[in-house]
Every structure is written in structure tokens, then in C-alpha cells.
Amino acid sequence: MNMYEDYLMLLSPPEPVKHEIARYKKASARLIGQFKSMDSPAHISVQHLERQKPFMSGKNMELIEQAVNTMPPVLLHLDGFAHFAHLHSRMTIYGTIRSTQASDDWFGTLKKKLRIKKNIIPHITVVRDVAKADFDKLWSHFRHKKLVEPFWIKELTILKRDSLNSLAKWDKFKVFEFKNIPGTGYTRDEVALLKAGDPDQVNLFN
User: Fold this and answer.
1) What is the pLDDT of residue 34?
2) pTM of the full structure
3) What pLDDT is attached to residue 107?
4) Burial class (CB within 10 angstroms; exposed 0-12, middle 13-18, buried 19+) of 168
5) If DSSP states are collapsed to H, E and C, what string results for 146-188?
6) Is residue 56 part of a domain?
7) What UniProt keywords are attached to this protein's entry (predicted)?
């Protein structure tokens, strides 16, 4: 058993979204070479817990599962690209998630139920922590792309890795469903999208 483990809680979009984000990553790599997030599947980070004792995870996971099960799925919208700066002139490009009252309320509830202290600003990282010169090569290819595409998030995924092994990779640990019924305010088409599942969530990045 590992002495300490890191846990990463994330929301995983449907396969068509992952596929299109991967296409943008590959196209970016052709322009600037390899970068940190190049092989990372598209996801929305929720919480990163570092150096946790493994024997604590059992009861904690039960509580997390109970909390997640009481929440409904949430409808999110990819809505263009944006970027932010790190220290030392490093830059990250990400797909934005449109802020709506329904999504803001949902993330607020998730934060409360999982006892997350930091703010959750949902986004999907595409190119992470690259030099300003590389960013300048890429940004013109992203800035005018308009993504207005809905997708449902139906579950919370938890990954884990050995904290003390610098070469350790993330492994899927738990997947918990948002089992409650979505509230009012969704259109018939949006509800149909939830029932249809991933195969119909296509035509992104056109």
C-alpha cells in the first residue's frame, strides 16, 4: 500500500467533446512541438487533493458518493476559447464553459457538498503552461473559433496516484453518478439530449 496518495476529482465530457479537444491538441503540437497537457483527455477539474493517507479514502469515498448521488446531471455549454497567464510569461489556452444561472448554482452546490474551499471556474484546458512565443503562434488559430455546443455531465470521476513516486500516472479510482432528476428550466431538446446519450453530441468546433 502506498503511504500517501493524490486524488483528482474531475468532470469528464462525452467522447465527441474529448475527440475534438484532442484534435486541437494535436494541431497545436504540430505548430509548437510537445507541451504538458498534450496527452491529457479533455476534462473539467473540480478538486486536487495531495498527500492523502489511503486508509482515509474508504469512508470519505462513501460520503462523496452519497453527496454526488443526490445531485442531478448538469447541462454545460462550450463557448469559445480564452487564455490566462502564469508567472514568467507562461500561458494556457482553454475552452470556456458558459456561465449560466443553472450552471453557477449547480457548481455552488457541488462545492458545498464536497466541502471544496477554492472557487471552481469550470474550463477545459487545451494547451497548458507554454512559453509566450508559442502562445503567440497558436492564439490566432483559437481566438475566432466559436463553440456553442451543449453537453451533459452525468458523473464525477476520481483519479489517484502515488504521491511519492514522481513517475506515477493517474489511474481511474471511482466514478459516481449524479442520480437526481434535473430541475425545471430545460427545453425539450436539452432533455432529449440527456436521454440520447453521447453518440448524438457531435458537430463541435465547426
Assistant:
1) 94
2) 0.88
3) 97
4) middle
5) CCCEEEEECEEEEEEEECCCCCCCCEEEEEEECCCCCCCCCCH
6) yes
7) Ligase
pLDDT of residue 192: 84
Residues 50 and 162: their CA atoms lie apart, in Å, by 10
In which band, very low, low, confident or very high, does the pLDDT at 149 lie, cut at 50, 70 and 90? confident
Residue that wins the pLDDT comparison between 3 and 161: 161
DSSP string, 63-120: HHHHHHHTSPPEEEEEEEEEEEE-GGGEEEEEEEE---HHHHHHHHHHHHHTT--S--
The count of structural domains within the chain is 1
135: in domain = no
Which CATH number belongs to the domain containing residue 174 in this structure?
Answer: 3.90.1140.10
pLDDT in tens, 60-79: 889 999 999 999 999 999 99
In a domain, 106, yes or no: yes
The domain in which residue 44 lies consists of 5-76+100-120+153-200
Q: Which helix (H) or strand (E) holds 45?
A: strand 44-52
454526488: which residue's cell?
A: 68
63 found inside a domain? yes
Whole-angstrom distance, CA of residue 173 vs CA of residue 161: 9
- Cβ neighbors of 107 (< 8 A, separation 6 or more) are 74, 120, 122
Q: What is the mean pLDDT of residues 156-170?
A: 91
Cell numbers representing residue 134 in the block: 508559442
Closest CA to 64 of 152, 182, 172, 177: 177
Q: In 3D, which of 83, 161, 150, 74 has the Cα closest to residue 111?
A: 74
